[in-house]
Amino acid sequence: MNFSMKKILPKKRMGTTLKTAPRQKRLAIKTKISPKQKKQRPPFQKRVSFAKSSKDTKKAQKAEEFVKTGIVGFDALLDQGIPLGTSVLVAGGTGTGKTIFCLQTLFNAAKKGEKCLYLSFEESEQRLKKHLDDFKWDWRDLEKKGLLKIVRKEPFSMTASIEAMLAKAKGELLIDINEVLEIIPKGFQPDLIAVDSITAIASAFGKKEDGYRIFIEQLFRYFETLTITSFLISETEQMPTIYSSSGIEEFLADGVIVFYAIKQGNIRENALEVLKLRGAKHQKKIVAMQITDMGIKVYPEQEVFGKIGE
Amino acid sequence: MIDTKKLAKEFNNLGEGAIVLIETAASKILEVHLAAVKWLSDKKYTQIILSTSRPCKNLLNLYQKNNIDTNKIVMVCSVCQEKEKKEQKNSKVIHLQSSSSLTEIAISLSKCMESMKDKKFVFIDSINTLLIHNEPNTLAKFIHSILTKMRTNNVSGLLISLEAETDKEVRAEIAQLCDKIMCDKIVKV
Amino acid sequence: MEQLESAFNEVLKTKEGKSILLELDAESYLKIIIKTIQKLQKKGLSGVYISIQRPFKNISSLLKKQGIDLNKLIFIDIASAVSKETQENNKGCVHISSKLDVDDLVRTIYTSLDQMKGKKFILIDSLTTFALHKPISETLRFSEFLMRQVKERKDLVLILNVAKDFSQKKFIQDVVAHADKTIAVKA
Questions:
Q1: What are the chain B neighbours of C167 within 8 Å (beta carbons)?
Q2: Core-most of A54, A194, A264, C112, by most CB within 10 Å?
Q3: Would you tell me the crossing angle of helices C29-42 and C2-13 to the nearest 10 degrees?
Q4: Which residues contact B55 (CB under 8 A, 6 or more apart)?
Q5: Which domain holds residue C135?
């Protein structure tokens, strides 16, 4: 990030420090920030008000440093939430609830006023909107307000652009991904993004694994630079031991949430676990989960009786 | 004929929160089931019945025929495997996917225990049917978990199994988790 | 019952630490546990009760009704932990993580023992239920470690309960081989 705190904080008044500044009416912080800096400005700093005491500010800041999914039972697995700006790999087999988890998290965040982008490389926008309707999540108003955007992209056209770009860059690792791929729609600055799925992107790269690796590394860095909290869906086996196609995504990601469909006789029972989450305390156990008519419900206190790992 | 007086005496001796395993012959299992449900119903217990042997509709008909008050009965049914139709949603019956979905069964039983305020009784019919669908070790873990939840919430319980049909090793694991084992002595000769 | 009485009398006479394996049938299980604790408390022993079978709330009220002095007992409530129930907040009850880490459990046992003076006992109720939640190898490692430790101490008696007819017969034989005394108690 290339901005200075001085440009954001108001000027010091004579004889005062920021800490002991008298209470004032709320001031809109108007500073001259270049368009590039505007893009890169961390979202939570926009909400800091200097009319409050520094204690309230710190408390507000701390609460806003974490993202809550709003999913019943899931947030109880985390001490405070998902740290802002982290990249989370959402891994699991087919039909285990990864898409619903991401949709539900983004929908809940959009309801709170966060800008959310669901980037799909598989299902169409209509299909995803139908999922939202099936769970009776009223997305239309949020879309109108510009808080929720669902965009579909063709993975093959994207990979072609990346390959051309890589050839042009002649092995240089630094590439401005968004300029080439327009991953984030112009004029839209998301706080949260879901990518569904990185497996589809990896498939589009085919045997060109090097290209994919460079791309995925740049993608993680890009989201990190913009302090976007990202959820990247990764398709795996039903009982995975590797959580991504190339194996590096789980190392690059700050967090890994794994979804399971545990075979029990002739049925499968859903479960999930927070495998890792940097910068946050979380419970380390596989817990029961159900996909209900109202969305995902997690039961953090419920033991899972299936044979996990078989 | 089941000696309900003996059954009542055994239960009264144990007090609240007791968990009993009734071992009976295959030919008597329905009789024992009905006698136990009737006694509990007369005592005004709210009953949470896990039905893995008979469909819930069949059981409810039998209860009505035997003048058992079903107002305080909630059935958790894993036999029908019916998807609840929204129009016909019956709050007295919870349908489950299968007798193998032990986690789902545990969630449903927990929800029932937590949502009901009166004195409650959990009735599991039967251990042998659950053994058909589940590994003995997994089932024993499930029974331990459910019984612990019941004990923590001061909920009494009744488990039915077939005497001499249950593998003695499986029986040992499950029976030791119960407060009392009742055999055919509750059945009048 | 007489066999149990004489076995305890014999064990408590010696100055060395001893371990006793009780093979109990389901019908007499609870009765024998109560008798065991009553006997040990009469002899002036305090103890650590590792409750895997039942949650603290349930077992403590059952024991209290039978006249057992709960002040001379420290409970380690594993039943609530493995069943993910909220663990009772009581000074006589020690919390344990639901992961049921054996090393952690051993540390908890020793910390609890340090809080007591004089001759003590550890009662594991039961190894059979412990084996439901942990692999047999870990259950064996846990029981063997404790039995070895007990032999080195003069002030400790270890009582392990297993269900009669438990499926893992080889495991039982391994425990029997290391225990100082094995008593098969019938109703």
A1: 136, 169-170, 172-173
A2: A194
A3: 30
A4: B77, B79, B80
A5: 2-185
- The C-alpha of C117 sits at a distance from chain B's nearest C-alpha, in angstroms, of 31
Q: A303 and C85: CB-CB below 8 Å?
A: no
**Which chain C residues have any C-beta within 8 angstroms of a chain A C-beta?**
82-85, 98-99
Q: Is residue A8 part of a domain?
A: no
Q: Could you give the CA distance from residue B98 to residue B85 in angstroms, rounded to a whole number?
A: 17
Q: Domain containing C117 — which CATH number?
A: 3.40.50.300
A120 in any annotated domain:
yes
Least confident span in A101-110, A140-149, C40-49, C128-137:
C128-137
Contact C84 A301 (CB under 8 A): yes
Number of separate domains in chain A: 1
Q: Which residues of chain A does C99 touch, with a Cβ-Cβ cutoff of 8 Å?
A: 284-285
Residue with tokens 């499986």: B170
- Is C82–A284 a contact, with Cβ atoms under 8 angstroms apart? no
The answer to whether the CB atoms of A267 and B134 lie below 8 A apart is: no
Domain region containing A165: 85-260
Interface test with B, best of A272, A297, A301, A303 (most B CBs within 10 A): A303
ipTM > 0.85 for the complex: no
Query: Could you give the CA distance from residue A197 to residue A207 in angstroms, rounded to a whole number?
Result: 18
What is the strand order of the sheet A87-92 is part of?
A148-152, A116-120, A192-196, A229-235, A87-92, A255-264, A267-277, A287-292, A295-299
- Give alpha helix (H) positions in C14-161: 29-42, 56-65, 78-82, 102-114, 127-133, 136-152
Indicate whether A139 belongs to any domain: yes
Mean pLDDT, chain A, whole residue set:
79
A47-67: per-residue pLDDT in tens? 433 444 454 555 455 556 899
- Taking the C-alpha atoms of residue A171 and residue A173, their distance in angstroms, rounded to an integer, is 6
Cα dihedral across residues C74, C165, B180, B16: positive or negative: positive
DSSP state of C152: H
Asked if the Cβ–Cβ distance from C128 to B173 is below 8 Å, we say: yes
Q: What is the dihedral of CA A132, A135, A140, A143, to 10 degrees?
A: -50
Tell me, yes or no, if the pTM score tops 0.90.
Answer: no
Tell me the average pLDDT across A278-300: 92
Q: Is the pLDDT of residue A147 over 80?
A: yes
Question: Looking at the DSSP assignment, which residues form a beta bridge with residue B94?
Answer: B76
Residues in chain C closer than 8 A to A302 (CB atoms): 84
- Interface check A303 vs C, CB under 8 A: yes
Tens digits of per-residue pLDDT, B88-114?
Answer: 456 788 988 889 999 999 999 999 998
> Can you list the domains of chain B with their CATH numbers?
4-82+90-186 (3.40.50.300)
pLDDT digits 0-9 by tens, A203-246 = 888 777 777 888 888 888 888 888 899 999 999 988 888 898 88
Q: Is residue A79 part of a domain?
A: no
Q: Categorize the per-residue pLDDT at A31 as very low, low, confident or very high, splitting at 50, 70 and 90.
A: very low
Angstroms from C162 CA to nearest CA on chain A: 23
* Amino acid at the residue C179: A
**Is C91:C128 a contact under the CB 8 Å cutoff?**
no
CA distance A107 to A142: 8
Give residue A130's pLDDT. Answer: 95
